[in-house]
Amino acid sequence: MNRRRGRGLFPVVIFFVAILSAAMIFAVSDPPVDPLAGTPIAFVWEGDARRLVFRNFSPRFDRREGGRIVVPFANGAKAVLTLDPALQEAMETYFRRHPVPYGVFVAIEPSTGRVLAMVEHSTREPRHSGLALRATYPAASIVKLVTVSAAIEEKKATPDTVIRYRGSPYAMNAKYWVDNPRRDRIRTTLAEALADSNNVVFSKVALRWLNGPMLTRYGERFVFNQPIPFELPVQMSTMRVEGGARGLAEAATGFGKVTLSPLHGAMMAAALAHGGVMMAPCLVDYLLDAAGNLLYSCFPKPLATVVTDGTAQTVSWMMSRTPVTGTSRRVFQDRRDAPSLRGMMISGKTGSLTGDDPAGKYSWFVGSAPLSSPQIAIAALVINDPRRIKTKSSAVAKAGLSAYFQNQQ
Fold this sequence. Notes:
By secondary structure, the protein is of the alpha+beta class. It has one domain: Beta-lactamase (3-Layer(aba) Sandwich), CATH 3.40.710.10. Helices cover 34% and strands 23% of the residues. The protein has 13 helices and 18 strands. It has helices spanning 2-28, 85-97, 144-153, 174-177, 190-196, 199-209, 212-221, 244-253, 262-273, 309-319, 322-325, 329-332, 393-408, and strands spanning 41-46, 49-54, 64-65, 68-72, 78-81, 102-108, 115-121, 162-165, 186-189, 239-240, 257-258, 277-279, 284-288, 294-297, 302-305, 347-356, 359-369, 376-384. The strands form six sheets. A five-stranded antiparallel β-sheet has the order 3-4-5-13-14, with no helix packed on it. A five-stranded antiparallel β-sheet has the order 7-6-18-17-16. Strands 1-2 form a two-stranded antiparallel sheet. A hairpin with a 5-residue loop joins β4 and β5 (78-81). α3 (144-153) crosses α6, α3 (144-153) crosses α7 and α3 (144-153) crosses α10 (309-319). The longest helix is centred in the N-terminal third of the chain and has 27 residues, at 2-28. It is globular, with a radius of gyration of 27 Å. The N and C termini lie far apart (93 Å).
């Protein structure tokens, strides 16, 4: 009896000894090392997708390794950025040579959303960062891209639609918005009106064929009033269409309560260049731990479909008139200083307005190139002292496109 009881207890003893041994092994083993410990990086989940974000951290773009811009961390991990070092450096140099109160240049690869350049400069606030992600700036006439996209997508107009008007094309006078066949003697097409940034014509477009809810809906298709997913916090661009004819006309032409960040401006141009599909922007190409193991890589992800492919191609073609006959022709028609752009068709839209956050004269340019197969989309913003204009957005855009294609060649 005792011998049998002893044999029965033996397996139980062995089992508990094994459990105790395992517990001791785990107790003395080092806990797993978090490869992100000591870094400002975190991952957030959006559905089934994982996205990388920086927490309370503004990366610097002055470290180069193997022809790439990298951000190293104290624990040995490093983020390899999507930035094009040659383009980034060229535009940093440009702003050093043309110091302005505020200047921003953002470039994006339309098909992937990869950020190719993000340059910020300020003589007024030299230590300020996040200028490219700030949306306190009035969108000005860049909002006309939303207006014209809505009119074409809704089949209300075409680039050749003729609109007659009177008065200064840049005035915002309600008496000019009302059609008067006897007095409306100036004739223009919708394509010409976009190139010239004609406020009277775009007021008429909005009042004839659109309404407040429709314009707001198209603004939100272009990701106004919505968060933009990015590794760094992006202030939301806003579009508010106030009631009445004046509220609609002002919002549609860029005089209303519509704000825009430079990153978002580049994304708008990229979406039109990419068949109407806006890609989520990406700054970190991939992330490595201290041993060189891959922890994360950015994959292209559609963020929104802003318009159909046909409308996107039509609007992009209309934008190609801006550097040829429109508001930026004086800068772009002289390409002796930009040989890499000779013979190239460039899509663009300008905007200008006086704003107060920060105070100054705002000058915008958003666009893409080349028209036939866009490789780059850009946004340039310059805020000058109204009494002293040092450079304008069209010149910044031309310098950026020239530097990019020169490097490509």
